Every structure is written in structure tokens, then in C-alpha cells.
Amino acid sequence: MADLLGKLICGIVYVTFPTTNIRPDIITPDVFSDMLRFLYNIDAADNLFPSIHCLVSWYCFAGLRNCKTVPYWYRYFSLFMAIMICISTLVTKQHVIIDVLGGVMLAELTWQLSSRLQLYKTFKLINQEV
């Protein structure tokens, strides 16, 4: 439910408040520059706030952080990876800091809201009626 709610909010924000980013020209001729140029070609720099990259990465961590059946080291590895994904969106100029913060905050807000309100029960009711 958190994921659906978060992406619904992202969609509303993208339609009502579209954002964009100006990326630098890549002129160096090496394999890493070629990969970044390819990324820029396939992923337009629009609809950036909030970052869905960061939103989904934070959900991965949020789903594990209190799960006692998952080893402690793996839970914190998940946090490390979520943070690294957020950083990677910044250094590759996919997003700016406000996009990252917006994605993480939206993930946390929708995760807490759907957990506290037990919104998953809505799906159980729908599945029972079908």
C-alpha cells in the first residue's frame, strides 16, 4: 500500500508541478562517459521531484529494518544500498538534493501511514469479495 500510495502521489506531483534538470555536456571519450551518455539518452531529465529511485530504495530498507528474521547485517546493508542509490542519483545528475529528500521523506511518510492505518487490509477485503 505504501508503494501504491507513494507512486500515486508522485504521479499527481509530476502532473501538477513538473520539474526538469539541465545536465552537463559529456565530452570525454571513455567507457564510463559513454555509459552516462547512454543513460541521459534513455532517461529524460523531467518529472524529477520526488525521486522514485530514492522512494523505492527506501521502501526496500523500510521493509526490512524491523524484520527480526532477516540478519542484522543484511538490514543495515539494505540501508547502505539505499543511501548509495540516493547518492548515485546526485553524482550522475539524475536528481538534485531536494528530489532525493522528497523521495525518502515520501517513502517514510507513506510507509508509516500505511503501517499505522493498516491499509493492507483494504486489499484483503477486495480479494475476499472477488
Automatic annotation (TrEMBL):
Highest taxon above the source species: Bacteria
Pfam families: PAP2 (PF01569)
Originating organism: Clostridium algifaecis
Entries under InterPro entries matching the protein: PAP2/HPO (IPR000326), PAP2/HPO_sf (IPR036938)
Start and end residues of each Phosphatidic acid phosphatase type 2/haloperoxidase domain: 37-121
Alphabetical keyword list: Membrane, Transmembrane, Transmembrane helix
Protein name: Membrane-associated phospholipid phosphatase
Keyword Transmembrane: yes
Keyword Transmembrane helix belongs to the record: yes
Membrane-spanning residues: 72-90
